[in-house]
């Protein structure tokens, strides 16, 4: 089975690029591919088609992100009397972005128990709340150098409108891994809150509330495509050593988590791997070409694949 993705230029959908991935032979990968097919049958749309992170020449800067967050806050304030963050200007510290995320948790609520503001809000309000969160993570992505520098950390996030969630099985937790390789397709986080590993990366233990510390318990058709540099085995080993030292330093076990429990969901579950295109001779060839096609267009599950393809789709 194969996962095929199409991208277009932001202002010209006639100009397209493609990537093809081989779906792994695991139970969760098979169930994920079925989730994709289910969303397609329901007529679900890809939303937030611009979620390309750290691509060259994308024009995204700390200032442009702060402006976008400010616009979201202005829209939210039209419907909401809750305290909202003040007008933002860079630079923002990690404490600043962690604090901003708390506002999102209050505005959004959980998946199963959304806040009254979100539940009863208009489509425009919900989009502003969701975009507010996306822009916070985009700011973090382009400004921090841990665990990798932005120029080594390209990724694309696919999210489906009103996507259905499904519970992970016990066996799935054995497949979580830290540091996905270039071209990996991994299940995306589909909870509201933060995973344990993100608490460590964000150094966020003083802002997030305990009830919003949520390891991944579900999967959906949503994915992240990783196009950054590979993490070496030594880098992964050191990262995990530092993670568990941080665990002990803050006594994370007091919150009810068991050290080394697979259900802590440390890392990602990879479900597919890139089939290298013939016109991509290096990682940066692919990254640079996709940088010109920073709009998600379509996705499909294919039973067969010819074995050879180019990223560039010839115009007919």
How many strand segments? Answer: 12
Given the structure, what is the number of helices?
8
The low-pLDDT segments are: none
In this structure, how is the largest beta sheet organized? 10 strands, antiparallel
Rg, nearest Å: 19 Å
What is the beta-strand fraction? 15-25%
Helix residue percentage: 25-40%
Class based on secondary structure composition and strand pairing: alpha+beta
Order of helices and strands: EEHEEHHHHEEEEHEEHEHE
Shape: globular
What is the distance, rounded to the nearest whole angstrom, between the alpha carbons of the first and last residues?
27 Å
**What's the overall average pLDDT, rounded?**
95
List the helices and strands and how they pair.
Blueprint: E1 2-9, E2 12-23, H1 27-41, E3 46-47, E4 52-53, H2 62-77, H3 94-108, H4 116-120, H5 123-143, E5 155-160, E6 166-167, E7 176-177, E8 184-187, H6 196-202, E9 218-219, E10 223-226, H7 233-250, E11 268-275, H8 283-291, E12 295-302
Antiparallel strand pairs: 1-2, 1-12, 2-11, 3-5, 4-5, 5-10, 6-9, 7-11, 8-10, 8-11
Helix pairs in contact: 2-5, 3-5
Descriptive account of the structure:
The protein is α+β, with helices and mostly antiparallel strands and about 325 residues long. Helix content is about 35%, strand content about 20%. It has helices at about 25-40, 60-75, 95-110, 115-120, 125-145, 195-200, 235-250, 285-290, and strands spanning about 1-10, 10-25, 45, 50-55, 155-160, 165, 175, 185, 220, 225, 270-275, 295-300. Helix 2 runs antiparallel to helix 5 and helix 3 (about 95-110) packs antiparallel against helix 5. It starts with a strand and ends in a 14-residue tail after the last strand. The mean pLDDT is about 95.
């Amino acid at each position: 089975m194969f996962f095929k993705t199409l991208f277009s230029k932001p202002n010209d959908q006639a100009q397209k690029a493609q990537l093809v991935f081989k779906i792994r032979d695991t139970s969760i990968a098979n169930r994920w591919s079925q989730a994709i097919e289910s969303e397609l049958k329901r007529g679900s749309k890809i939303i937030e088609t611009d979620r390309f992170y750290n691509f060259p020449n994308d024009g995204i800067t700390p200032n442009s992100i702060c402006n976008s967050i400010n616009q979201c806050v202005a829209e939210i304030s039209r419907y909401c009397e809750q305290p909202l963050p003040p007008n933002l200007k860079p630079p923002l510290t990690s404490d600043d972005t962690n604090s901003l995320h708390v506002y999102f948790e209050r505005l959004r609520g959980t998946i199963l128990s959304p806040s009254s503001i979100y539940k009863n809000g208009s489509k425009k309000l919900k989009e502003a709340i969701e975009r507010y969160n996306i822009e916070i993570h985009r700011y973090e992505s382009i400004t921090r150098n841990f665990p990798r520098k932005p120029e080594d950390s390209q990724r694309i996030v696919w999210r489906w409108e009103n996507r259905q969630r499904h519970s992970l099985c016990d066996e799935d937790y054995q497949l979580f891994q830290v540091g996905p390789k270039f071209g990996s397709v991994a299940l995306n986080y589909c909870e509201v809150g933060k995973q344990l590993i993100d608490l460590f990366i964000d150094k966020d233990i003083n802002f997030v509330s305990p009830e919003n510390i949520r390891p991944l318990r579900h999967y959906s058709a949503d994915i992240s495509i990783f196009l950054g540099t590979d993490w070496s085995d030594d880098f992964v080993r050191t990262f995990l050593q530092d993670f568990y030292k941080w665990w002990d330093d803050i006594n994370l076990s007091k919150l009810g988590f068991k050290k080394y429990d697979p259900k802590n969901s440390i890392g990602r579950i990879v479900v597919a791997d890139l089939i290298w295109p013939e016109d991509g001779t290096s990682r940066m060839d692919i990254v640079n070409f996709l940088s010109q096609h920073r709009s998600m267009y379509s996705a499909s599950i294919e039973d067969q694949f010819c074995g050879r393809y180019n990223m560039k789709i010839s115009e007919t």
